[in-house]
Specification:
With 327 residues, the chain is an alpha/beta fold. The chain is 35% helix and 28% strand. The strands form 3 sheets. Strands 6-7-8-3-9-10 form a 6-stranded mixed sheet, with helices on both faces. A 4-stranded antiparallel sheet has the order 2-1-4-5. A 4-stranded antiparallel sheet has the order 12-13-11-14, with helices on one face. Helix 3 packs parallel to helix 5.
Length: 327
């Protein structure tokens, strides 16, 4: 649905993007992450057709955003980090105006405007001037104008910034409901938000795409090993010995919790799933497994690992293109 091929963007002598290639499938939600100034907002602006790339090609729904800008923009809804709103208009008038820009007219426009106001929760302020509503409501109005045309592609730059906790929950649920119906690129500094909403993440650092995959695959690749935390009831030494004898297990460490309960950290070979073997090994000896929890890196840990230790990133988990980008 979205294709970037070796895209660069220069601001004068400064290279903001350095040969990014990226593909987003139809109905997918992609989280775009990176430190401040890494090139996230620039990437989103280029996809939205807000400005052209210096080189490379960008296609949205098979339309080239430079050569076929009007056709491409018809299928895009875009929410910038700071939504440009006409503050002397009422909320409803602005959303109606946005609908007209998307080609909606008459009853169809009225029905769609009412529906999108309900979806983003601005109905209670629909007759107020935008200049007289809070920042949170302005953010919702910005989201409404992005949604009103029922876009195939939705580009959201920090969609929950300025919202209160209840509003954040509501907007996240709205985005989840849109997944599958629209292809979504989402940028956020709230990494748990990205984890809960996105199918994949793409991490940009210093203008380069340095990683692209599911958080689970990135976690496994960066750790270079698999871990499971087990809480087991029984004699610690006997359990330790039994775990070490399970095929595929590389090492086991123990931490006593109670008189007859210990926590065991089991490291096993990459590509192996030893959970079933661990279960039967313990069951055959009468040791009760109270908990079995896979150990994974959080998205925060992945983000910090990739953006602060870029030179030491293991490249084996992704094939790089000729420019050194992960694709």
């Amino acid at each position: 649905m979205i294709q970037l091929a070796n895209v660069t963007k220069n601001y004068g002598s400064k290279a903001a993007l350095k040969g990014i290639s990226l593909t987003v499938k139809r109905g997918e939600v992609l989280g775009l992450l990176g430190p401040n100034g890494a090139g996230k907002s620039t990437t989103m602006r280029l996809i939205a057709g807000y400005m052209p790339p210096t080189s490379g090609t960008i296609k949205v729904a098979e339309y080239d955003v430079v050569k076929q800008p009007i056709a491409a923009k018809r299928v895009i809804g875009y929410l910038p980090e700071n939504p440009p709103l006409y503050k002397d208009m009422t909320v409803k008038d602005f959303i109606s105006y946005s609908a007209e820009l998307k080609g909606l007219k008459g009853k169809k426009k009225s029905l769609r405007v009412d529906k999108v106001m309900e979806e983003v929760g601005v109905g209670v302020v629909k007759n107020r001037l935008i200049s007289h509503i809070s920042r949170g409501y302005r953010q919702r109005v910005g989201l409404a104008q992005a949604l009103v045309g029922q876009p195939e592609v939705l580009i959201l730059d920090e969609p929950t910034v300025g919202l209160d906790p209840q509003q954040i929950i509501e907007i996240r649920q709205l985005i989840k409901n849109l997944a599958g119906k629209s292809t979504i690129i989402l940028s956020s500094h709230i990494l748990p938000e990205v984890s809960s909403l996105c199918h994949r993440v793409a991490i940009i650092n210093k203008g380069r795409l340095i990683a692209e995959d599911t958080p689970e695959n990135l976690s496994e690749a960066l750790k270079g090993k698999r871990e499971i935390i087990l809480k087991i009831k029984g004699p610690e030494k006997d359990i330790l010995s039994a775990l070490q004898n399970v095929s595929g297990v590389q090492s086991v460490s123990a931490n006593p919790i109670d008189t007859d309960i210990s926590e065991f950290r089991v490291i096993f070979e990459k590509g192996r799933d030893v959970r079933e073997d661990l279960f039967f090994a313990m069951a055959s000896r009468g040791f009760a497994i109270l908990e079995m929890i896979p150990s994974k890196m959080s998205l925060e840990e992945i983000f910090l690992e990739l953006t602060t230790e870029e030179d030491s990133i293991p490249v084996s988990f992704k094939e790089g293109d000729k420019n050194g980008n992960y694709i």
